[in-house]
């Protein structure tokens, strides 16, 4: 697995603009069409926002790290936080009932990415989310 980019961030919503810009730039460099670039950028933004909102419960003293890799025809986004571990079931998207509030970000992430997995975290890491997307042909 080849590390393309590592982005440490404070768990604050003002950081998300920079995350979006960097993810967008990397997707363009990797050759994704603009529509895919927009969708991937939005999915990563949602995942980071979920860390801020749910893992850290909107506290601003947390941090997270987004690492982007190239691996065997895939781009791999690894999102690490240092919050309390979450229940694996919280990653399951809700049924596609758009009338109910909440969960649409998870639905989007699962629709955009080819795989979404909560990995066992390394020591001193709260949660490690891996999202994979096939590289463009």
From TrEMBL:
The protein's name: ATP-binding protein
A Gene Ontology molecular function term of the record: protein serine/threonine kinase activity
Pfam families in the cross-refs: HATPase_c_2
Cited Gene3D superfamilies: Histidine kinase-like ATPase, C-terminal domain (3.30.565.10)
Keyword set, alphabetical order: ATP-binding, Kinase, Nucleotide-binding, Serine/threonine-protein kinase, Transferase
Domain of life from the UniProt record: Bacteria
PANTHER family: ANTI-SIGMA-F FACTOR RSBW (PTHR35526:SF3), ANTI-SIGMA-F FACTOR RSBW-RELATED (PTHR35526)
Keyword Isomerase: no
Domain Histidine kinase/HSP90-like ATPase: 17-133
Lineage, uppermost ranks: Bacteria, Pseudomonadati, Pseudomonadota, Gammaproteobacteria, Cellvibrionales
């Amino acid at each position: 697995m080849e590390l393309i980019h590592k982005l440490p961030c404070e768990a604050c919503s003002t950081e998300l603009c920079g995350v979006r810009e960097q993810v967008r730039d990397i997707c363009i460099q990797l050759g994704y069409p603009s529509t895919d670039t927009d969708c991937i950028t939005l999915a990563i933004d949602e995942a980071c926002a979920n860390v801020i909102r749910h893992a850290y419960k909107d506290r601003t003293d947390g941090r997270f790290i987004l690492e982007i890799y190239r691996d065997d025809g895939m781009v791999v986004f690894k999102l690490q936080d240092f919050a309390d571990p979450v229940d694996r079931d919280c990653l399951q998207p809700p049924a596609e009932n758009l009338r109910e509030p909440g969960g649409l970000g998870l639905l989007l992430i699962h629709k955009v990415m080819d795989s979404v997995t909560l990995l066992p975290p390394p020591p001193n890491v709260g949660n490690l989310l891996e999202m994979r997307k096939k590289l463009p042909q």
